[in-house]
Amino acid sequence: MEIYVVKQGDTLYKIAQKYNTTVDYIAETNELDKDLPLVVGQTIVIVNDRPSTYTVQANDTLYKIALKFGVPLTELSKANPNITNPLNLQVGTIINIPNQNENKREIEVNGYCFVNISDEVLDKTLPYLTYLSIFSYEILADGNIVNIAGDTRIIDKARASNVAPMMVITNIENNATFSSELAHQLLTNELAQANLIRNVVAKMQEKNYYGVDVDFEYLYPEDRELYNQFLSRLSIVIQPLGFILTTAVAPKISSNQEGLLYEAHDYAFHGKVSNHVIIMTYEWGYTYGPPMAVAPANQVSRVLDYAVTQIPSTKILMGMPNYGYDWNIPFVEGTAASTISNVGAVNLARRVGSFIQFDNLQKAPYFNYYTPNQEHQVWFDDARSTYARLKFVSDYNLGGVSYWTINQFFPQNWLVLKSMYNVKKVV
Fold this sequence. Notes:
The protein has helices spanning 12-18, 23-30, 62-69, 73-79, 119-125, 151-160, 180-187, 190-207, 224-238, 267-273, 297-310, 342-352, 383-395, 411-420; strands at residues 2-5, 43-46, 53-55, 94-96, 105-114, 131-139, 145-146, 164-170, 172-173, 177-178, 211-215, 244-249, 276-279, 316-321, 324-329, 338-340, 357-359, 364-371, 374-379, 400-404, 421-423. The chain has 427 residues and is α/β, with parallel strands linked by helices. The strands form five sheets. An eight-stranded parallel barrel has the order 5-6-8-11-12-13-14-20, surrounded by six helices. A five-stranded antiparallel beta sheet has the order 16-15-19-18-17. It starts with a strand and ends with a strand. The relative contact order is 0.13.
C-alpha cells in the first residue's frame, strides 16, 4: 500500500501509469468518480496486491524480487527453500511470494453505528469489524432501559458476517444529552443497579448480543467509586454467562485531570474489570470549539502515553473519528461548526476550488474556502492522518481501534487498515 498525494496537473491516468496499474482499479478501490477532477492535496491509496507466485525473468535475483513485491528477503528465502543460489536464478523458475496477510498483526476493530445505518454501508463495513456496537439503549433512574427499534436487522447481519454485536447502554436522557444527574440517581441506588443488570442480561439473551458496552459520560466526580462498584457488579454477573464487558472512557492525560468529562473515569479500574476499554480519542476539534483536527496525532499520543501506564495495552481500543468539521473563521465563541464526512470534505474542496493542506504536527488535512462575506476552514481525515494514528496501535501495542461512527463509508480508511493489520473475528 502506498499513499499518493495529488499534485497540480495530476489525473487518474497519470497516477495509474506511475504505479503500473489501471484507472479503473484506482477508482474502484478508492471509490472515486472517474469523471471528476482530482483535488490538489487529495490522497489516493495505491493497493499493491501481491500475486502468490512469480516467474523469474532475465537478470532477476531473489533480492530484486523481494524489492519488487515489498517482501523481506528473509521471508522470501523461507518461502523458497529449494533455491540454493539466490544470485543466479534460472529464467522460468516459479517463485513463491509469501502472503502479506500472514505477517501482519491481528487486531480487534469495533465500530459504533446508529440503527439507521444503510444496508449498503453496513455490508461494505462488516468485513473489517470484530465488534459492532449499536447505539444506544438509554438507562432510566430505576434501572429500566429504553428500547431501540431496528437493532434486530443489524444484529442478524453482524452475526452472518462473523461480527460480534454489542449492546450499548448510556446515561443519555430523552434521546438528547448525557445526564450527570440520571447516572447519579442510578449509582446511588443498589436496587436500581440490580434491576438494570437484570434488564441488560435479559436484553442480551433475547437479542443475541455478544456483550455490553457501558458508555456513561459526564459523571459527577464524587460518583467515581460508585461507578467502579457498578461496573464490578455488572462484570461479576455477565462474564460467567459468557458475555463480555467493554467500557468507553474520556481521553485523559493524567489521573487527576480535572473536568466533568474526566474525573469519574478511573483508567486503572476499568483496565481491571473490562475486557476492552475504548478511549474516545477525538473531539479536540468539536462543534463549539475553535478550528483544529478532530483527533490530532500529537494529542492522541499524549493520551496513549498515560493510558498504557494504567490499562493493559492490549485491552485498549483507540478511538477513531469518521467525520470532520466546517468552521466559520475567525472563530467566534458560541458559534457552531457543521459536521462533514471525510469524503464530503474532498468533494467540497473540489466544488470551491480549494487546495488541501496538511498539518504535520496534528497529522491532519485541512483547507480554507470562502462564501459571501465569510471565510471557512475545514478539518477532516484522509489516508495520511488515518495511517498516522493507526500506526499507534503497533507503537503502543494496543488491542485495536474503535470507530465513531461507521454510518458513513470512508473507503480509504479501510484500505489503509487492511494494508497494516488483519482483523480478528471472535464469532
